[in-house]
């Protein structure tokens, strides 16, 4: 596929970049390795389009955005199939991602209808002070591979409804679904230049987009290291930033918790998308009194999760690339060498359907200690560390001893204790006693080095608007 710029397929200046199926290494397609010249073309297109787009009445933008949402639902199977091929996740879950992401467009559209300006009542006669809001400008949206469409919609839906236009750069591994979506949106009526997609590497075209003087905002989801580099570069032109970065989310299981419910939630949420999930459970602290009991309940649930081989069905796909796989292997080996107990998983699956793919099985590491990488560093794979703690205060302290603060989870029957733990956890979102899907209506984002700003709901839209204060003077009629 070519890039999608100014409403048309556009060949880039760089060499082709292969997109391979992580289940068997087969070639799915290629995309251009975009250059700074391609970044400039896309940004100029977005800037031209914004001159008109910002003037389109809100009601018309809302109506169009709802049409885009419906087009996503109508095409979920086709775009989900592309996502399935480039990411390796089971097909139904890919289709589900497209359909659920469409809801974000609807929700942001409704938030657009609720936006209003204010007028200060403190002005003297003959003066009025109006505080209005304007779209921030052209937005650069840079996304990771793991939920490429959902994480793009976090940004695109808010930006478009606010009157901004967008240049998106998807991850190297998963550009195809985003490109297909850009063509679909244009065919559905989104004017040329409002949503452009360029392809290439982060350090190449990604950095060129961030450095470019025209965009006024960078909305980024990805790792903390890339986020730091982007924040530093964006400061050069004082761009606004929304950063959704890495996480290393703890779960704290108290002795009075419903252990079956905790085990089910952690088995589900620790391994979703094969662990390639920013706010998955990474590490579990269990009060000593129920530690072995909890392990005995969790282990069979994790053992039930199946890997989907190339051409076959199962709960979990492979990891997206060799780098992500290597991290899961390294964390498992580090824990093994330091004396942890591997309760299940821990060895590469072999045989037809697995040999050519980036597979790692769901791996439970018990008796993990704080010096092990699995308890300190983001895995982004199906590897979970578990450690006993003396009591919940010990567990809370260990939960917070991290540079990350994206999400945290607690399990206890005591409401007061649960509230104290939720209030004590340093994380942008906390869950008590179960782990539901994060809601599209409430803010999502990280504390500490997990990010800057919030997405979703009206919080998300507001970060694409800039305040403007207008002081108006007029002659009061005698
Ligand atoms: P990554 O940081 O390697 O890449 C993310 C995107 O940034 C890619 O498109 C990449 O090309 C681009 N990029 C990298 N360096 C760049 C630079 N210097 N300038 C401009 N662009 C650059 O992340 P990944 O491996 O694709 O995804 C995994 C990471 O994303 C994990 O750390 C995960 O926690 C994080 N993530 C966070 C959230 C969240 O909401 N907080 C959600 C999903 C994923």
Provide a descriptive summary of the structure in words.
This protein has 478 residues and is an alpha/beta fold. The relative contact order is 0.14. The protein has two domains: 264 residues, Aldehyde Dehydrogenase, Chain A, domain 1 (3-Layer(aba) Sandwich); 184 residues, Aldehyde Dehydrogenase, Chain A, domain 2 (3-Layer(aba) Sandwich), CATH 3.40.309. Helix 9 links the parallel strand 12 and strand 13. Helix 2 packs across helix 6, helix 3 packs antiparallel against helix 6 and helix 9 packs across helix 10. It has a seven-stranded mixed sheet, sandwiched between helices. It has 14 helices and 22 strands. The structure holds nicotinamide-adenine-dinucleotide. Nicotinamide-adenine-dinucleotide (NAD) binds next to helix 7 and helix 8. Nicotinamide-adenine-dinucleotide binds next to helix 7 and helix 8.
Average pLDDT number? 97
CATH-derived architecture of the largest domain: 3-Layer(aba) Sandwich
Q: Can you tell me the residue ranges where pLDDT is under 50 for at least 5 consecutive residues?
A: none
Please identify the structural class as seen in this structure: alpha/beta
What distinguishing features does this structure have?
binds nicotinamide-adenine-dinucleotide, globular, 478 residues, six-stranded mixed β-sheet, 14 helices, Aldehyde Dehydrogenase, Chain A, domain 1, 2 domains, Aldehyde Dehydrogenase, Chain A, domain 2, seven-stranded mixed β-sheet, alpha/beta
Give the arrangement of secondary structure elements.
Layout (H helix, E strand, L loop, with lengths): L2 E3 L2 E3 L5 E5 L6 E6 L3 H18 L4 H17 L1 H12 L3 H24 L3 E3 L6 E9 L3 E4 L5 H15 L3 E4 L6 H13 L6 E3 L4 H10 L5 E5 L2 H12 L4 E5 L4 E5 L5 H13 L9 E7 L3 H13 L18 H16 L3 E4 L18 E4 L16 E7 L2 H9 L3 E2 L1 E5 L3 H10 L4 E4 L14 E2 L2 E2 L4 H6 L2 E9 L5
Parallel strand pairs: 7-8, 7-10, 8-9, 10-11, 12-13, 12-18, 13-16, 15-16, 18-19
Antiparallel strand pairs: 1-2, 3-4, 5-6, 6-22, 11-21, 14-15, 17-20
Helix pairs in contact: 1-7, 2-4, 2-6, 3-4, 3-6, 4-5, 7-8, 9-10
The structure holds nicotinamide-adenine-dinucleotide.
Nicotinamide-adenine-dinucleotide binds next to helix 7 and helix 8.
């Amino acid at each position: 596929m070519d890039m999608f710029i100014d409403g048309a397929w556009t060949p880039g200046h760089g060499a082709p970049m292969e997109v391979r199926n992580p289940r068997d290494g087969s070639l799915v397609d290629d995309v251009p390795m975009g250059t700074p010249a391609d970044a400039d073309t896309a940004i100029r297109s977005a800037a031209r389009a914004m001159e008109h787009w910002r003037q389109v009445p809100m009601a018309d933008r809302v109506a169009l955005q709802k049409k885009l949402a419906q087009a996503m639902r109508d095409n979920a199977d086709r775009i989900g199939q592309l996502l399935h091929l480039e990411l390796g996740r089971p097909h139904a879950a890919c289709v589900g991602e497209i359909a659920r992401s469409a809801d974000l467009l609807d929700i942001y559209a409704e938030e657009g209808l609720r936006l209003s300006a204010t007028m200060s009542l403190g002005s003297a006669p003959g003066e009025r002070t109006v505080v209005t809001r304007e779209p921030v400008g052209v937005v650069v949206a840079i996304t990771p591979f793991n939920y490429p469409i959902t994480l793009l919609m976090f940004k695109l839906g808010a930006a478009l409804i606010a009157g901004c236009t967008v240049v998106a750069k998807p991850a190297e591994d998963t550009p195809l679904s985003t490109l297909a979506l850009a063509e679909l949106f244009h065919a559905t009526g989104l004017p040329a230049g409002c949503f452009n997609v360029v392809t290439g590497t982060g350090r190449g075209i990604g950095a060129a987009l961030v450095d470019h003087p025209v965009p006024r905002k960078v909305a980024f989801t990805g790792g903390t290291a890339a986020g730091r580099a982007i924040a530093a570069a964006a400061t050069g032109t004082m761009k606004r930033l929304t950063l959704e970065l890495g996480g290393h989310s703890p779960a704290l299981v108290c002795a009075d918790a419903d252990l079956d419910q905790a085990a089910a939630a952690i088995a589900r949420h620790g391994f979703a998308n094969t662990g390639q999930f920013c706010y998955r459970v990474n590490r579990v602290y269990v009060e000593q009194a129920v530690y072995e009991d909890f392990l005995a309940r969790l282990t069979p649930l994790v053992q039930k999760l199946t890997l989907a081989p190339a051409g076959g069905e199962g709960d979990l796909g492979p990891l997206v690339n060799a780098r992500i796989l290597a991290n899961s292997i390294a964390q498992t080996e580090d824990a093994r060498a330091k004396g942890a107990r591997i309760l299940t998983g821990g060895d590469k699956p072999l045989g037809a359907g697995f040999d050519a793919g980036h597979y790692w099985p769901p791996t439970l590491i018990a008796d993990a200690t704080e010096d092990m990488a699995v308890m300190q560093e983001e895995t982004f794979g199906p590897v979970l560390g578990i450690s006993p703690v003396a009591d919940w205060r010990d567990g809370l302290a260990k939960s917070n001893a991290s540079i990350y603060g994206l999400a945290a989870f607690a399990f206890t029957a005591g409401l007061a204790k649960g509230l104290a733990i939720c209030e004590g956890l340093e994380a942008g979102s906390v869950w008590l006693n179960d782990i539901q899907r994060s809601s599209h209506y409430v803010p999502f984002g990280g504390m500490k080095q997990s990010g800057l700003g919030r997405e979703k709901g009206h919080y998300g839209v507001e970060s694409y608007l800039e305040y403007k204060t207008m002081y108006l003077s007029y002659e009061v009629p005698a």
